[in-house]
Structure formats: C-alpha cells, structure tokens
C-alpha cells in the first residue's frame, strides 16, 4: 500500500469513528502532504536552525502542554501565511499534534536578529537591513553628507552655527520574488510524496540563495570597478595594495574621503591565495631556480590588512547570463564585463551595503497553499487536479556608499 493510501485510509477511519467530519478526510490528506512540503521548504531555507527549534517545540509540548499552547497563540503574527496548515491541525487536534508551527515561529523570530543569513553569504551578513511598508522608492541610508564634518567650537557669548546636509543616496525599491510547485493528481496516484518534499526543500535553498543574489546584484550594478594591471593573478600583494590605495585617497564633491580596506570577498579560485597572502608575516625569496635569488623586504605589507571571505555564489552570478539571474525573461539580465575571477573589497565600518525587506518578510519568505474547495481524490479536484504551494519573498538591495566598496577586476 502506498504512503498516500495509508494516510488517506487513516483519515477515513477517523471519519468513520466520528473524530472528524467525513467530507474532510480527503482534504486533510492533501493538507498533510502540503504541510510536509512546507516544512521541507523551511528546512531548506533555515537549515539547522529549524531542526533546533523543532526539538525545542517538541520538548516544550511534552513537558508543559499548556505553556506550549500559550506560546503558539502568542506567535500568531509570525504565522499568518500558514493558516491552511493550522486549520488542518484544528480539525485533527484530537488525532495529531504538530510541533512545526511553533518551531517555525521560534525560527522566524531568531532570523530577525542582526547578522543572520540563511544562505552562506558573508556579503549578505554585512549588509545593513531595513524594513519598509510598501513598494515605493527608498532612499539609501549612509549617503547623506553634513556640510561640517565636526561639531563647531562656539566661543563664549556667540550664536550657534547651523549646518546643512546634502543627500546623495540613490533610490531603490523592493521587488517580489516568487515560485510555485504543484502537487498534481497524477503525483498523488504515483505516490510521489518523497519527490514533492525533496523539491520543496530545494525551493527553500533557492529562496535563501535569492536573498544573497539581491546583494551581489547590487554590487555588480553599482560598485566602482578597478581594472588591475595584473588582475588575472588575483589578490596578490601588489593588487591588494592597489585596491587599498584606491580606497584610501578619494575625492567626492571636492571633499577628501579616506576608506580603510577591511574585508575581501573572493571566488573559490582565489580563496587559498588570499589566505596565504594576507596571513604570511614574512616574505620569501624569488628566483634561484635558474639564476640568483632575488631578495625582497622581509615584512609583508598586506599582512592582516583585511579578512578574506569565500563567496562562491558571487562567481556564479558574475559569470552567468539570464539563467543565473531571477530576471529569467530578460535577455540582458547578465552583467557586462564581469568575470568569475573578479573579487570584492570593502570597508566594513562604513557599511556600504543595504538590503530592505517588505514588512512581514524580515524573517524570511512566506508560503501559500492552494487547496480547492471540492476534493475527491479518486479523480482529482474539480478544475485541474492540482494542489500547489507558492513561495514569495520581497526584498531589494543597494550600494549605499560607493566610496567604501570596489570590484577588483581580473581582466
């Protein structure tokens, strides 16, 4: 007997015994399958954080059921997108109990803390976050310049000096990113629960990857690019010094601006090289194989000058056209003149990156279920035999301070 048949038989048996209304047996069967998919999606998105909170929810339910119920009721604001799943549990609360809803609430709450990134992207972790209430243009923070850089000395009995400011931030806006997966009548007949759940987990990974893409996309479009003389050699001492000098001496609207190189974000190609270059205190000798050894200064000028971070997704995005970009229907969605060997340098203290989320999406994407009113599993649903789960996320990113970031070009 298939997994679907066993599940359906269990609900039909419950209906016969009077635990649930008979007409809900098939719909609850499908909602249980969809919940398994939704839980897999969030596992793909949040990884171990969800597993930890599933265990926390289970332990709390076993040790203090009343407290568990109160905690779940208190987290309604974080669970507004899984009303269908919670409806199903209310119908079957005498039969089953799910720890998923409370675990998801705990996970979403934890994900709102600064520095959390669902995808292993160091660039996403350092981006300043904001919350907006609509899709209107947003002016980036951190790009407003006071006319006076310091407080003014006020001699005794003199009036205060009034300053002014110039807003130089560019406008950007959040955008809606969505995908859906259907669970068809044919999949039901073929007992394809496992395949559906696996696909939903991969969809969760894709949603996390899209948030990282949002920041990398802003860098690709907006960050100043520095063509290096020997850029094809990667983050060598000379190339790091060139980027360091470029950031250290800048002029913006007639004002001298100095930024400090603190971090490098690298494709996998350069990770080992950067680690050696930045962590070697002494330099060796060159030559000696077919000629005399050539002495160099004994101290490495870029020793500990910056912290290297591996950012493999950046190389994938820089190299790809529309197929590596959420703008799938845009033939110009790639990035001209960028290479998978390019790397990014920035001044972390200046906080040059910014990502905004629509209110309600700060802690992650939302899932929506499509469950038809009429469900007869022997022959599918009334219209097209399809249940579905849609995933939506709303965010947008920008480079808020172009003086504090560079793309070091390999060629």
Write the layout of secondary structure elements.
Elements: H1 3-16, H2 25-46, H3 48-63, H4 65-74, H5 83-91, H6 100-111, H7 122-126, E1 128-132, E2 138-139, E3 144-146, E4 165-167, E5 171-172, E6 175-184, H8 185-189, H9 193-222, E7 225-227, H10 237-248, E8 250-252, E9 255-257, E10 263-266, H11 271-279, E11 286-287, E12 293-294, E13 307-310, H12 312-319, E14 343-346, E15 353-358, E16 366-370, E17 375-376, E18 380-381, E19 386-399, E20 405-409
Pfam families: Phage_capsid_4
Quick gist of this model?
By secondary structure, the chain is α+β, with helices and mostly antiparallel strands. It is built from twelve helices and 20 strands. Pfam families: Phage_capsid_4.
> How confident overall, as mean pLDDT?
84
Rg from Cα: 27 Å
Alpha plus pi helix count:
12
What is the beta-strand fraction?
15-25%
Overall geometry:
elongated
CATH class of one domain: Alpha Beta
- SS-based class: alpha+beta
Q: Please name the CATH topology of one domain.
A: phage-related protein like fold
Sheet bearing the most strands, described? 5 strands, mixed
Cα distance, first to last residue?
60 Å
Helix content: 25-40%
The CATH architecture of one domain can be named as: Alpha-Beta Complex
Give the tally of β-strands.
20
Low-pLDDT ranges = none
Please tell me about this protein's structure.
- Helices cover 37% and strands 20% of the residues.
- The chain has 411 residues and is α+β, with helices and mostly antiparallel strands.
- It has a domain at 115-145 and 167-411: Alpha-Beta Complex (phage-related protein like fold), CATH 3.90.1690.
- Strands 1, 6, 15, 16 and 19 form a five-stranded mixed β-sheet that branches. A five-stranded mixed β-sheet has the order 7-20-14-10-13, with helices on both faces.
- A hairpin with a 2-residue loop joins strand 8 (250-252) and strand 9 (255-257).
- The chain starts with a helix and ends with a strand.
- The model has no long low-confidence stretch (mean pLDDT 84).
């Amino acid at each position: 007997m298939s997994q679907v048949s066993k599940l359906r038989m269990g609900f039909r048996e419950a209906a016969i015994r009077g635990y649930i209304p008979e007409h809900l047996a098939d719909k609850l069967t499908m909602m249980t399958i969809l919940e398994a998919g939704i839980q897999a999606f969030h596992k793909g998105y949040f990884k171990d954080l969800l597993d930890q909170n599933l265990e926390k929810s289970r332990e709390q339910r076993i040790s203090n059921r009343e407290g568990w119920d109160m905690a779940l009721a208190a987290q309604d604001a974080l669970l507004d997108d899984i009303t269908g799943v919670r409806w199903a549990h209310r119908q079957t609360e005498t039969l089953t109990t799910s720890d998923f809803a409370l675990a998801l609430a705990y996970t979403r709450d934890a994900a709102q803390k600064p520095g959390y990134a669902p995808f292993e992207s160091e660039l996403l972790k350092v981006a300043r976050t904001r919350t907006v209430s609509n899709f209107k243009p947003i002016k980036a923070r951190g790009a407003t310049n006071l006319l006076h850089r310091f407080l003014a000395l006020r001699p005794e009995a003199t009036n205060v000096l009034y300053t002014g400011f110039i807003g130089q931030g560019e406008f950007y806006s959040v955008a809606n990113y969505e995908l859906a997966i259907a669970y068809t009548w044919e999949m039901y007949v073929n007992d394809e629960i496992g395949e559906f759940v696996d696909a939903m987990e991969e969809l969760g990974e894709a949603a996390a990857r899209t948030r990282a893409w949002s920041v990398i996309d802003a860098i690709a479009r907006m960050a100043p690019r520095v063509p290096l003389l020997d850029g094809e050699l990667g983050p060598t001492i000379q190339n790091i010094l060139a980027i360091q000098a470029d950031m250290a001496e800048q002029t913006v609207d007639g004002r001298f601006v100095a930024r400090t190189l603190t971090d490098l974000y690298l494709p996998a190609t350069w990770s080992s090289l950067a680690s050696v270059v930045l962590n070697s205190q002494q330099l060796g000798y060159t030559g000696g194989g077919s000629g005399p050894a050539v002495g160099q200064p004994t101290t490495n000028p870029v020793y500990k000058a910056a912290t290297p971070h591996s950012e493999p997704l950046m190389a994938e995005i820089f190299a790809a056209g529309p197929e590596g970009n959420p703008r799938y229907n845009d033939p110009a969605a790639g990035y001209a003149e960028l290479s998978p060997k390019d790397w990014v340098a920035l001044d972390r203290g200046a906080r040059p990156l910014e990502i905004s989320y629509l209110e309600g999406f700060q802690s992650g994407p939302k899932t929506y279920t499509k469950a038809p009113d009429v469900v007869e599993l022997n022959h599918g649903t009334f219209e097209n035999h399809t249940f579905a789960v849609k995933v939506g996320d709303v965010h947008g990113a920008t480079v808020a301070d172009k003086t504090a970031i560079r793309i070091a070009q390999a060629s």
